[in-house]
């Protein structure tokens, strides 16, 4: 029974609820019976423990179970009919002690989705660029394929030339600096932060050593080299000559399974077009999202912002891990990182609420079949069992969250179709 309701802000509310004594007693009786069926106490057969013994032996557990059932139900009943959509869990501020035969009051604060007054969202102006794919684009992609399929021949007769790969050892030293040793390979003639190395190596044969001095500025990438004149000694260990395959029908077949060069060029052109169309669509989505934010101003529940922020932090952690960063040992200021990510998290939460409101107004729905198809796709990509993934989502509320997200995507697709070119 609702005792008091208070508007703290458009998205934050407070309620005081009283649960009647007879309702508590009725639920306690049910819970006691359930505990009795499972109780296994010395001197009693399982399921035959007297109710008074169960109540005494499991008093605390019974009270906790009763409250875990009655609190959420009474909360939903108290706000029913007020047109509110709670987000997150209520924050319990006060609850009376559990006294058998007495009513129980509690007070809680909670957040709700804001009431959004939709502004004009059709006909948003976006940049419109025609998608063009020319022969030069296809040629550039084929050249990358040739690079990937290249073989490398060791050259021993001549000196190194532009385009060759130099396998080198390099020793660097200067007054007051510990000698640095490194090894690797460079492509001669390629843009480099150390062009002097290329100049020194040109024309040299494998086994030869060259030297040069370089004075580094105060902002040099290598901190040890800053404001120092470094003496470099490079040994050319090996010359490797890149040999690219010719663009023939056999190349098309072996590299991509195409019948011939013509089919390869056609497929590459179509793939480039798809990528560019996807880039244009992403740009339109971003422009429409920014336009919606400019037209709608409202308070966002912290719960939704925190949800978005959590996703950003998880994605960033996964990215760092993919780059080989040991997250446990890395010196990362997660608080500062969260502060940096927060503005964008607020934007995403606001965009989601606006698109949700548009989807509702436009009667956009997402069927179970569509949700299942999306789950099946994700499960296949993750090599997981579809039924298992669906069950987990059903259990933790993710199923309906996915449906809502897909409805937002449909709303955004509508706005893209209804958009107009700038100018």
Order of helices and strands: EEHHHEEEHEEEHEEHHHHHHHE
β content, as a range? 15-25%
Task: Give the number of helices.
Answer: 12
Largest sheet: 5 strands, antiparallel
> Which fold name fills CATH's third level, the topology of the largest domain?
Trigger factor, domain 2
Tell the overall outline: elongated
What's the gyration radius in Å? 34 Å
What's the average pLDDT? 92
CATH superfamily caption of the largest domain: Trigger factor, C-terminal domain
Q: Poorly predicted ranges (pLDDT <50, ≥5 residues)?
A: none
CATH class identity of the largest domain? Mainly Alpha
Structural class: alpha+beta
Number of strands: 11
What's the architecture of the largest domain in CATH terms?
Answer: Orthogonal Bundle
Distance between the termini: 58 Å
Helix content: 40-55%
Number of domains: 3
Short descriptors:
423 residues; alpha+beta; Alpha-Beta Plaits; Chitinase A, domain 3; Trigger factor, domain 2; five-stranded antiparallel beta sheet; four-stranded antiparallel beta sheet; 12 helices; 48% helix
